[in-house]
Amino acid sequence: MFIHILGGIKMRSILNFNSSWSFYKATADIGVAEGAELVNLPHSWNALDGQDGGNDYYRGSCVYKKSFTKAELPAEDLHYLEINGANSSADVYLNGKHLAHHDGGYSTWRVNLTNDLAEENVLAIVVDNAANERVYPQMADFTFYGGLYRNVNIVSVPNVHFDLDYYGAPGIKVTPTVEGKNAKVEIEVYGANLPANHEYLYTIYDAEGNLVAETHSESKVVTFSIENVHLWHGRKDPYLYTAKASIINGGNGIDTVSARFGCRTFKIDPQNGFILNGEEYPLRGVSRHQDRLGFGNALLPEHHKEDMELIYEVGCTTIRLAHYQHDQYFYDLCDEYGMVIWAEIPYISRHMPTGRANTVSQMTELVAQNYNHPSIVVWGLSNEITIAGSDPDLLENHNILNDLCHKMDKTRLTTIAAVSMCNINDPYLQIPDVVSYNHYFGWYGGETDMNGPWFDNFHKTHPSIPIGCSEYGCEALNWHTSDPRQGDYTEEYQAYYHEELIKQLYTRQYMWATHVWNMFDFGADARAEGGENGQNHKGLMTMDRKYKKDSFYAYKAWLRTAEEAPVLHICGKRYIDRVEDVTKVTVYSNFPEVEMFVNGESIGKQTSDNHFFYFNVPNVGTSTLTAKAGGLTDESTINKVDTFNEAYRLVEAGAVLNWFDIDAPEGRYSLNDKLGDIMKSFRGKLWFYKLMAGIAIKMKGGKKGEKKEGGFTIDISMGKNLMAMMSSFTVLRLTSMMGMANVSFTKEELLKMNKKLNRIRKHKSLK
Fold first, then answer.
1. Which one of 43, 84, 370, 719 has the fewest beta carbons within 10 angstroms of its own beta carbon?
2. Is there a contact between 747 and 657 (Cβ–Cβ < 8 Å)?
């Protein structure tokens, strides 16, 4: 597809280069195409093996090769190859000559092909996602999909053109400043030096396409005034202007670039949270990974659009785009839908002293390529980077990145996502402008009621530091129970968890942002838990986007008003067979009152100011439940059974032991007991410390159990914070989770542990 002249102004020609690539695994000679197949982009070679578990997906080099003639290219002076995503390193060869190397799998980069083009050409792009010590990410809880997973284009321009070599940026930089009812808009362009008789034409158009401002200039920087400016105001009014710049010669346009922008003010207040255009605007939302079941990260525009519509439906005002730069199309959607965005680089989990240059290059590209998006308000420096502790080199790396962001962008703030165990007085928390923490109290140890008080303590200790929650969540699959407990992977526990977290986090005005982890289940090939390996199941929706878990509706009821999007949802629709004579049924609604009917007869009304309604429902035979509120109805079915339906219970395939296989004598400990309960006994405490010593011995590969192929590092030193988190783990859950740190236990070892625990009497407080 070519784009040429619009209204007398010429635009660069863009040729989509996605079709008909020869694809094969790299050999010593990249010209040897053994087992080659024909593919179209976007493409990932880990679309399947990166989601099936085992942490054995292919990580290495693959070749994408395409033949073309010079005659197929647009009739322009210069031709650039534009790669919008190659994970995670790539080399470009044209006719056997090496032209470029790029490290960083999530950004746009370009290569000038002009001088090496022949009449007949062979283009080869070698992409490599193998483990190394210099390119982030190397350790994280998601799959590092390899491939050319976004669009590849040929961009053709005349000799005099806007810069295509500046870090993949669009060539135009728009900086609006709101002053009362008006706005000043600075437009800066990056272009070749203008020859004689050339000039720039600058224009601004409103959302309706009306010309707002225009000027001719030889300067690369101009400033406009917009009177009675229409503000970009999040979901309420995501109004966008368009700035255009053209190089003009003799009245004709030679090259044109454009960018949409929004005019808004914001600040993040330590006491009152996020302020948009002078109005308190609570940032309540989700995080998002860019993958999908069966596609890997090779998403199509319709996938991005569907994700945005679902995020919008639930009522989010903010998205954390984790843990890397996302597709430009999705940033455009964020602008259009009024989402407030946290954008970040994959400086994650493990600080690599040899990776500093890569953090700088990835941050430079992130800011340069996304500067014009009004949706972005913070640049994320890192995520959970102090898992293995903090040191001077890590601090220096963060100071460099923080200074870089402020040098490149004086309009936005910086932030970090700190790991839960990070001491609140750690000096690295003083580096960014605002701070958020990743907390999983109630899932990875601790209890749900620890969350709010923890933030209160941080806020009291550091009243001048804006604090938010950058991750919280728990996993849910199609398992069910009437007695939900931490670690059971049931939809009911996830619903309970989010009910509690909503009540705690959404009522604390000082929290500048909260982000659920995660909007969608996502690929994490190292994971082996919950009964479906290869995925993190903390999403409010399944990875295929086909099922909205009950917790989805908890947020929708809180975040949407009944006037704009009425909500009435009976939870537990997949949990039909129930043993108890009276069963608890939860309903979510944004109406103040809900009435419940059983087989057509009302069992009463409930009122609630927190959108959660609980009914004790008689369970006799087969019953149709009908909830009514505000003119809406919702139905579900329950069925009385004598014995628990084992189809609802997680039986982990391949698990060494399941919880119901463990001997647990009355009054004695077992693997099914929580560590906190075991530690109440003196003998239990001794047993626990021996266990941790044994885990330390089992740690394999690298410092403190580092696992280099997409797993985790675990620091087992017993700090107070870590101990508080671990106290609610059962021993069995702890040992199963250690698999993420490359530590495993045999059935015999676990049974031996259990036998020792069976000899220890429970503390008197537990009897």
1. 719
2. yes
Please check the confidence at residue 66 and state whether its pLDDT lies above 90.
Answer: yes
Residue 738 and residue 701 share a domain:
yes
C-alpha distances out from residue 767 to 232, 636, 755, Å: 60, 39, 20
Where in the sequence is the domain holding 627, given as residue range(s)? 577-646
Same domain for 248 and 271: no
594-626 per-position pLDDT tens digit: 999 999 999 999 999 999 999 999 999 999 999
Q: Are 745 and 628 within one domain?
A: no
Q: Provide the token pair at 501.
A: 């977290």
* Residues 662 and 701 placed together within one structural domain of the fold: yes
N-terminal to C-terminal alpha carbon distance within the chain: 74
Longest dimension (CA), the chain: 93
State which H helix or E strand residue 245 sits in. Answer: strand 241-249
What band does 558 get if pLDDT is binned at 50, 70 and 90? very high
| Residue-level pLDDT at 720 | 59
The residue type of 413 is L
Same domain? 554 vs 581: no
Conformation bin of residue 247: beta by default, left when phi > 0, alpha when psi is -120 to 50: beta
485 shares its domain with 507: yes
CA angle, residues 289, 292, 294, in degrees to nearest 5: 150
pLDDT digits (tens, 9 = 90+) for 191-203: 877 888 899 999 9
- Are 405 and 377 in contact by the 8 Å Cβ rule? The answer is no
Cα separation of 319 and 342, whole Å? Answer: 6
Task: Read off the pLDDT of residues 436-461 as tens digits, 9 standing for 90 and up.
Answer: 999 999 998 788 999 999 999 999 99
The CATH code of the domain that includes 152 is 2.60.120.260
Cα–Cα nearest to 663, from 521, 758, 545: 758
List, in order, residues 6 or more apart from 708 with CB less than 8 Å away. Answer: 131, 138, 139, 701, 702
Pairing, β 577-578 against β 632-640:
parallel
CATH of the domain at 216: 2.60.40.10
Confidence of residue 255 (pLDDT cuts 50, 70, 90): very high
Q: For the residues of 566-598, what is the DSSP string, one character each?
A: --EEES-TT--EE-SSEEEEEEEESSSEEEEEE
How far apart are alpha carbons 607 and 571 in whole angstroms? 17
CATH code for the domain in which residue 472 is found: 3.20.20.80
- Do 270 and 366 share a domain, yes or no? yes
672 CB neighbour count, 10 Å cutoff: 16
Is the pTM here over 0.85, yes or no?
Answer: yes
740 and 637 assigned to the same domain: no
* β-strand partners of 359: none
Domain count, the chain: 5
Active site residue 601: no
In the listed set 646, 676, 700, which residue is the last one of a domain according to the structure? 646
Given the residues 344, 365, 384, 499, select the one marked as catalytic: 384
User: Which among 131, 138, 147 is positioned nearest to 41, based on CA atoms?
Assistant: 147
What residues are paired with 504 via a beta bridge?
none
